[in-house]
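User: Predict structure, ligand 2'-monophosphoadenosine-5'-diphosphate.
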Amino acid sequence: MAESPKAFVTGYPIHHSRSPQIHRYWLDLYKIAGSYEPVETTPQDFPLFIHSLKERGFSGGNVTLPHKGQAYALAEKCDEVASHIGAVNTLWFEDGILHGSNTDAYGFACNLDDFAPDWEKETALVIGAGGASRAVLFALKERGYQQIILVNRTRARADDVAHHFGKGIVVADWQSVNDHIGRAELIINTTSLGMESHSQGQNDNNPEPVINFAAANPDVVVTDIVYIPLMTPFLKQAQKAGLKTVDGIGMLLHQAVPGFERWFGIKPQVTGALRSQILTSMGGEEI
Ligand code: ATR
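Assistant: Predicted complex:
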């Protein structure tokens, strides 16, 4: 009899990860005799762990902070999306070869498909230029966005990202964000702090932008990739201005789908029941 498939999630630290709960929910739901276990690895030990995957009997797994860049370097074959983002969050063996992908772009797009089904328009405003921003930009380009305005506190980083993605991305100054807001049909916050740090820890040379949601197109969709808290200050402000908002938890749930399908052979569904269970475990509330 074939052994039950085994998958992992590794990071440093790993105890915050919601992934075991998501995958175990699906393993139970689909009655699959597989496992999904958290494994903590330090950055120093990470290469050794990756090289021992076959020996340990893993079919693959997820990689989270701070190892996504190392995973990209260590995977034997990476797909197009991982190469654009320069980071891998999902690993699996195929014909004995360790493949890597990044499923954040997929998760981002599926979340909007669920909660803002007509989100595929032309002009988007993206705030932030880190790894998450790259995943968002990939998804936007793939879904037909022609004009993407990118702003980041550190402009040089936005310039690099825009250069990497090429045509269709225009970098604007952090301070000029409100000059562009009215044109955007979709506004995405990809920064870790959202608006939270607005009132504290400001740096006078680089003041936080105050997003003037009142100047936004009334049909705009506003989304945040941060999901703790579920209603980030960024989303709250947008909602206060009467705008449609989509929270970030669906991205977390959907990004888990491709990995589960690779390791366990079934494409799992992201449902309201799964969402509620994960939110409850986070002490959050449905909005
Ligand atoms: P991730 O992979 O989650 O995107 P990251 O690569 O560290 O993480 O990027 C974090 C993003 O949040 C960056 O765009 C960062 O801006 P800088 O490039 O200027 O650092 C942004 N960010 C983090 N803290 C911020 C703050 N207090 N104000 C504005 N932007 C911030």
